[in-house]
Amino acid sequence: MTRERADAAKNRAKILAAAADIVAERGIEGLAMADVAAASGVGVGTLYRRFGDRSGLAHALIDASEREFQAAFLTGPPPVGPGAPPADRVRAFLHALVDRTLAQLDLLLMAETTGPFARFGGAYDAHHRHLTVLVAQARPDVDAAFTADALLAPLAANLVAHRGAGAAGIKLGLDALLDGLLPR
């Protein structure tokens, strides 16, 4: 893995801070590459070379919270992290993912809808692997990989936005699925 130069890392941090501020002030619709470049003090060309487009910038903004989320379910305290029974961890993981999805819904909408498979890979693969392992531990008699996909499907950003449900409603729906699959 190539280490990022110190000046490049500093520019990246300035760019992401400026982009986050713009999204917080104006929403995702207000995220213009020229405005991010001006606010961060870098050239527009640098921004495009570094992130490609607004979608790439959205992915970079999502990345920091995704790293925190992955640390929580891999090494954090139970029930999201290790130490709780698999069924409890599945429920806690999905509830935490609901909160994370809603917190960055506009960014996820942009990032997940740039192409037919934009949602898949990266974070989705990590979430899927994690759920597959937990489901297999809790219910060795089911197709754990398929079940993981089925549990993640309601959290697609475009579906969450379309349905317009809040965290409580989404969690209740997931709990109903889980009660049939992994009874408490």
Overall structural domain count: 2
- Cα separation of the termini: 43 Å
CATH class division of the largest domain: Mainly Alpha
List unreliable stretches of 5+ residues: none
From the spread of the alpha carbons, the general shape counts as elongated
Rg, Cα atoms, Å? 18 Å
CATH topology name of the largest domain: Tetracycline Repressor, domain 2
Instruction: Count helical runs.
Output: 10
Strand content is under 5%
Task: Provide the helix percentage.
Answer: over 70%
SSE arrangement, N to C: HHHHHHHHHH
Instruction: Let me know the average pLDDT.
Output: 91
Name given to the CATH architecture of the largest domain: Orthogonal Bundle
Summing up helix and strand content along with how strands pair, one would put the structural category as mainly alpha
Number of strands: 0
- Largest β sheet strand count, sense and barrel closure: none
Structure characterization notes:
- The protein has 184 residues and is mostly helical.
- The model has no long low-confidence stretch (mean pLDDT 91).
- The longest helix has 22 residues.
- The chain has two domains: 52 residues, Orthogonal Bundle (Arc Repressor Mutant, subunit A); 121 residues, Tetracycline Repressor, domain 2.
- 72% of the residues lie in helices and 0% in strands.
